[in-house]
């Protein structure tokens, strides 16, 4: 009798867990969907990257910085991420995994600089987002990567 009731309550617990799990997945899916467009979860950077602070401070950002970074964004990012940061650059239609839409509401606000830096340094495996850091085809310095992140935040945060 005791064993039976234990068994039943375990069964009920399991069902509740399964329900919780299912709800969690649905919620997760909805969040990803709003952020990345295609219900895709972009890989998350390791904790040590998430903790990094952008060395480019507000005091370094002036008109000439913004102009320089606008040129860099146009040259190296626009064809995929779009001039408006909406992920709809001219190449985007050919990709199965679409470029991130920086200007989607909440997108940049919900991401740490270290996350963006990690993707820029390492690329996102299996997608057209390839590494941009020193020694890669784009050969951006770490400072240039931090700078383009600071630029994007100012232009595309919604
Ligand atoms: C050839 C196309 C292409 C180019 C050029 C490109 N990207 Fe991307 N980018 C992508 C794709 C596709 C993804 C989505 C990756 C994924 O879903 O895992 C992405 C994702 C990202 C992310 C990830 C955001 C996050 O949520 O973690 C950042 C940051 C990013 N790109 C910045 C840039 C910047 C800055 C440039 C220019 C220096 C650039 N990209 C150039 C295609 C591109």
Instruction: Give the DSSP E fraction (strand runs of 2 or more residues).
Output: under 5%
Task: Write the CATH fold name of the largest domain.
Answer: Cytochrome Bc1 Complex, Chain D, domain 2
List of distinct ligands in this structure: heme C
Determine the fraction of residues in helical runs and give it as a percent range. 40-55%
Radius of gyration: 21 Å
**Which geometry do the CA atoms define?**
globular
CATH superfamily of the largest domain: Cytochrome c-like domain
Q: Structural class given helices, strands, pairing? A: mainly alpha
The CATH architecture classification of the largest domain is Orthogonal Bundle
List low-pLDDT spans. Answer: 22-36
Number of helices: 6
CATH class of the largest domain: Mainly Alpha
Main sheet makeup? none
Please count the beta strands (DSSP E, at least 2 residues each). Answer: 0
Rounded mean pLDDT is 86
Integer count of domains: 2
The H-and-E topology, N to C, reads as HHHHHH
Euclidean distance between termini CA atoms? 60 Å
């Amino acid at each position: 009798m005791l064993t039976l009731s234990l068994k039943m309550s375990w069964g009920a617990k399991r069902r509740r867990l399964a329900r919780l799990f299912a709800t969690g997945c649905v919620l997760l899916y909805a969040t990803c969907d709003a952020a990345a467009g295609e219900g895709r979860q972009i890989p998350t950077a390791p904790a040590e990257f998430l903790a990094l602070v952008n060395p480019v401070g507000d005091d370094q950002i002036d008109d000439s910085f913004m102009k320089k970074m606008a040129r860099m964004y146009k040259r190296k990012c626009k064809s995929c991420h779009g001039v408006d940061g909406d992920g709809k650059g001219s190449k985007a239609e050919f990709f199965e995994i679409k470029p991130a839409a920086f200007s989607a509401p909440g997108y940049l606000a919900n991401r740490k600089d270290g996350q963006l830096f990690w993707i820029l340094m390492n690329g996102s495996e299996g997608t057209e987002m390839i590494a941009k850091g020193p020694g890669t085809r784009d050969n951006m310095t770490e400072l240039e990567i931090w700078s383009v992140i600071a630029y994007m935040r100012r232009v595309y945060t919604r």
